[in-house]
Amino acid sequence: MLIELIDVSYTYENKAPHERRALNNVSFKVEKGEVWGIIGHTGSGKSTLTEIMSGLIKPSGGEVLLHGEDVSKLKNPMSKIKGKVGLVFQYPEHQLFEETVLKDICFGPSNLGLDEEECIKRAKEAMELVGLGEEYATLSPFELSGGEKRRVAIAGIIAMRPEILVLDEPTAGLDPVGRDMLFKMLGDIKGKLCESIVFVSHSMDDVALYADKVLVLNEGSVLMQGSVKEVFERSGELEAAGLDVPQVTRLLIRLNEMGHSFDKTLLTPEAAADAIYERLKG
Ligand SMILES: Nc1ncnc2c1ncn2[C@@H]1O[C@H](COP(=O)(O)OP(=O)(O)O)[C@@H](O)[C@H]1O
Ligand SMILES: [Mg+2]
Description:
- By secondary structure, this protein is α/β, with parallel strands linked by helices.
- The chain has 11 helices and 10 strands.
- It has helices at about 45-55, 75-80, 100-110, 115-130, 145-160, 175-190, 205-210, 230-235, 235-240, 245-255, 270-280; strands spanning about 5-10, 20-30, 35-40, 60-65, 70, 85-90, 165, 195-200, 215-220, 220-225.
- Strands 6-7-8-3-9-10 form a 6-stranded mixed β-sheet, sandwiched between helices. The protein has a 4-stranded antiparallel β-sheet with strand order 2-1-4-5, with helices on one face.
């Protein structure tokens, strides 16, 4: 396993009068090759969890194992996690600052202590994977469109070749076309510059289409976790917690309620359409 969280808790402003428990005994692990979707209401602890995974903050309780080694008690967990878990913040394009795209993407790898030649090599490789042609290298990031800026920001993280790429709401503010492009790009990156991907989303449809596994957070605790099918089979519990189910799942549930027996665990609109078409033919 690449990373494992065991009973992780986090409290903001510990001991202060208005302390805020953001995570309660969260356990989950990411294996090589997996794509995880993390989902939950605003305030359920998703961003806090990404910051703990990437060593930005230390858990108040519990352990964070990286390749089996507990890094959460280290004075500086970042020293071990840096380069292994790459975090792309929400709206990462707000953090671009260098005068050229190439320099911006080189910032992360040069922070890992790599020499200039290696940084440039990795930056160019990352640019290609996110679909930015060489002509972008010398442009100012500030001249780019929102979608292009986001790709520059993601390239800056994958240029560090992290084992796990963690993205906090990577599709926030993107239209459906931009969203599809982003997930296609993540598919291209996985297996090339990173082994596993963890993305935070508030769209059950995105999770159903693009993740293998789902972690559902509710008020800082794990409500459920497992394969996409296992989680969406429990649609009643999701709805009871005020969470959506994918549109395709909702349609199949409705058809079953109407007396037509369909497999409720089909996850893509195409699979559902095929099943319905077959039934109509029959
Ligand atoms: N810097 C902070 N100081 C105090 N409380 C915070 C801070 N950041 C987040 N919180 C609180 O922690 C909880 C979890 O927040 P967060 O991890 O941002 O959730 P999500 O990303 O799911 O919206 C929320 O109740 C939020 O108000
Ligand atoms: Mg958040």
